[in-house]
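Teaching note: in complex prediction, the entire set of molecules is handled at once rather than each chain in isolation. The prompt given to students was simply: 'Predict the structure of this complex.' The entities are:
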Amino acid sequence: MTAETHEPFLLTPGPLTTSATTKQAMLRDWGSRDAAFIQINRDVRNRLVELAGGGDAFTCVPVQGSGTFAVEAMIATFLPRDGKLLILINGAYGHRIAKICDYLGRDYVIYETTEDTPPDPSEVDSMLANDVSISHVAVIHCETTSGILNPVAEIAAVVARRQRRLLVDSMSAFGALEIDVAGLPCDALAASSNKCIEGAPGMGFVICHTDALVETKGNAHSLSLDLEDQWNAMEKNAQWRFTPPTHVVAAFHQALAEHADEGGIAGRGRRYRRNCEVLVSGMRALGFKPLLPDALQAPIIVTFHMPADPGFDFQIFYDRLAEKGYVIYPGKLTVADSFRIGCIGRLDEQVMRGALGAIGETLEEMGIRECGPAVA
Amino acid sequence: MTAETHEPFLLTPGPLTTSATTKQAMLRDWGSRDAAFIQINRDVRNRLVELAGGGDAFTCVPVQGSGTFAVEAMIATFLPRDGKLLILINGAYGHRIAKICDYLGRDYVIYETTEDTPPDPSEVDSMLANDVSISHVAVIHCETTSGILNPVAEIAAVVARRQRRLLVDSMSAFGALEIDVAGLPCDALAASSNKCIEGAPGMGFVICHTDALVETKGNAHSLSLDLEDQWNAMEKNAQWRFTPPTHVVAAFHQALAEHADEGGIAGRGRRYRRNCEVLVSGMRALGFKPLLPDALQAPIIVTFHMPADPGFDFQIFYDRLAEKGYVIYPGKLTVADSFRIGCIGRLDEQVMRGALGAIGETLEEMGIRECGPAVA
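The expected output is the structure of the full assembly:
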């Protein structure tokens, strides 16, 4: 349990453990049209463009809802109705973009690799060469399904060379892994308040190339999710079109200040990498096997093979860890029976060691001596 | 300023002033798949169906985002792609439903009255008689533009007699004005966490006739806003499909408990009616003229004509009231130059008297002696 609140630590892909001070920023009611709240919005938007390396050419458009709302808004706003999207899939979030396109009735093709395999940039290159109707490419920065880091920069270079447009879902990576939207380049990048920035859930945002955003007028299928319309309104009066989640916005503002205090992306990434190292080496010492080789592992969430031991019941393991104050996450994989442990949120290496201690203790209680998978 | 927090009182249609205890419910991080959080969701959904008079035939589907997200989700899910919607418009929120239909590409007709005139049920009756292609009717319970109470029960009776389906936007009324979704009847009713229930903004919900909801499969234009898909998932595992705004949900749970403690809709409505009476009679004493006759005035938000006195500058009036701790709201009307003062949120008649005192003082400072409109 945390010293501050005696709540369990959330070792999940979100909602995450946030700082007490971030939550305390929600103890005030803001008028959404008040000057002080408008300044908070300006600060948040400017800071996010800065973190993304957007410079003057990019703008930030916030959107109410979860990360999926932001991704749907990005796809619907940026992919023209007569466009065609190439979706790089190696997990649930790639599949979700395909599902969004099904809803939107927009044309798409997929390039799917297994959940432990990143997309091959040269394969993307030939797909773009062979299908001139593909106008846009969508890639997941860190696919939370497995925790795999996808080669966004290499993909971006191919997409730019083939003169297509790139859309990035950086939901679980933004704020912890360096990204440079202007340098990639990309037209848009979506993320949310509640991942590596460590805010409360309830809003997402899309970092948009402003010139590209201007061209998107009329693309969106939804009033609520039309980023161009939201941006236009914000340019006029700096306000959200529809009631913003004021408390969540205030918490996000505080979380961004704490992110800066930690040294921005470099500092935040350093803590998460250390969390990940401590977790992976400790789990290996207990006999668990991570799904991914270290080179493909993003320091966000780690997938472990389920132990082959027939005495290992995941639900019991999960419940006992939760009782000890550590909430982990079930797997979502097709390639392997697995579970996941997150490295993000207001957690440090002491917490990770505490989790490892609780895992060791739980294995003892369950009488599990062998934690390796069926096929190692 | 409130005794609790020294924040300004929000006399607006939302975001509103909420109780300290409601905000304090956001001081904890919940895992979205945890049993305790799932129970909170169950409680919230059950309580909302109960408040709506839904009985066993109705279910509650929550949706991330602002009230507009919930309204768009309701229209998109319940209006079939080959359906046709009759929209009763007497303000901005009626127009917004038409705009949503434009985005969705769904067929609609409007019946528009001025902002101070409720729709005439007999006119709705003849429109339904004359156009058999109209499948659904949308009505705004309390149109926040003016604060007018629309005759939802009378409209519902006509719609039922003509065997069409009714969709109700009860955003600013639900929780303070009695409504009986089963008795009306209606297929769906949309509202949000941050109006008369006095929660934090960030989620809406739709009370749905379950049999009607089952028929909507495939209607929705958006993955994020598909109520049928969200409902199906919740029936299976009681969880949100995509990350819920956990802190906002926890605050809403607390706000619902406080709503019950106040005596539910009857008690909450009583306080708001008293707020409204004190406000209107005090403003009349100061010389202001409300837009609406008392019979059409919902106890939610009151529109006042702008004083004709050329010395009255609304921005100065607004700013000075804000400095004194009372945030009011500009008008949104086409029929009259006006401003609005809300009666909802964690406010009582003492607060309304305080606001009236601040208004009188501000008029003194501004040297305004005559607050009547140009044409009384």
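Point out the following to students. Chain B touches chain A through 60 residues (CB under 8 Å). The radius of gyration of chain B is 21 Å.
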